[in-house]
Amino acid sequence: MKFAVIVFPGSNCDIDMYHAIKDELGEEVEYVWHDETDLSRFDGILLPGGFSYGDYLRSGAIAQFAHVMKEVIKAAEEGKPILGVCNGFQILLESGLLPGAMRRNQKLKFICRPVKLRVENNQTMFTKEYEQGELITIPIAHGEGNYYCDEETLQKLKENGQIVFTYESNPNGSLLDIAGIVNERGNVLGMMPHPERAVNELLGSADGLKLFKSIVRNWREAHVTNA
Amino acid sequence: MYKVKVYVTLRESVLDPQGSAVKNSLHSLGFKEVQDVRIGKYMELLIEKSDRHIDDVVKEMCDKLLANPVIEDYRYELEEVVAQ
User: Is A78 assigned a catalytic role?
Assistant: First the structure.
């Protein structure tokens, strides 16, 4: 399986993401610059964290119009797995691939520490390797991760099982303790915590690796005969 | 040429943590009469006249980029100016 790590000016978790895929997961991966106009050679797209375009105007607001985003939207429509982490999640929200928006953290602080997450839905292509309700440790590092959407959207997210990860102890004021959501089709996941920073016990946790393994397992089941 | 002043604020229904912090700070300075503080963004744009109506142009820019309709409202003021 071949992954793309999209690099915007100001991305700063792209190298961690690349390392996680290449060295820990053992799959093919390439950096892709934000002005790329063809992503057809990739099976999965990863939007890393950072501060794309300096977070000017709003986090992810300018990145949503980078050339590569047209291709990301196309890949999403084709059903390919798209994962946005932290700033990547904010870009997915701004571009409309996921519903809602991010507000400043309730206590206005940038928070950087490992947190406990609960796997709320292990039936997605990103979470099949987890147990339903499993508690995992993944680090967060953000100043704007306070998820918001209107009541109607929130109801839909609940009913469709689109809330994939929640915080055990809400660090930022997020509605319903939301840490990560998928789109209705289930192939676009946005999450504030950084699974790519939790792929080896040496880093304090290897709980993030199962997320990437789930993506690969799902892809193999669909694309490889005798898998 | 138009000078356009765009004001973007968090929607009334959305809690503004920056505004609350500033309100508390004003209270501690003795300005007990402050009921509420909302923090927003102010942008100035210089826009050339075109075939399209200026209101349509500004609204489209606000809806697409300058404001996020999920959490923000916007309003703007138009002023005709002579190009320098």
Answer: no
Q: Residues of A with CB below 8 A from B70's CB? A: 93, 99-101, 148-150
Ramachandran angles phi, psi of A212, nearest 5°: -70, -35
Measured CA to CA, the distance from residue A177 to residue A160 in angstroms comes to 17
The CATH number fitting domain A2-223, selected from 3.30.365.10, 3.40.50.880, 1.20.120.450, 3.40.190.10: 3.40.50.880
What was the pLDDT predicted at B22? 96
Residue with tokens 């890949």: A75
Q: What is the pLDDT of residues A75-90, one digit of tens each?
A: 999 999 999 999 999 9
**In this predicted structure, what is the pLDDT of residue B13?**
87
Domain boundaries, given as residue ranges, for chain A: 2-223
A141 touches chain B (CB under 8 A): no
Instruction: Give the pTM.
Output: 0.94
Instruction: Work out how many CB contacts closer than 8 A connect A with B.
Output: 37
Q: Looking at CA atoms only, how far is residue A90 from chain B in angstroms? A: 12
Of A27, A71, A86, A149, which is the active-site residue?
Answer: A86
Query: Is the reported ipTM for this assembly greater than 0.90?
Result: no
Contact at CB, B68 and A61, closer than 8 angstroms: yes
Query: In the prediction, which pLDDT does B15 show?
Result: 86
Domain B2-80 in CATH 3.40.30.10: no
Stretch A24-29: mean pLDDT, rounded?
Answer: 98
Please, where are the H alpha helices in chain A?
A: 14-19, 67-77, 87-94, 151-159, 209-223
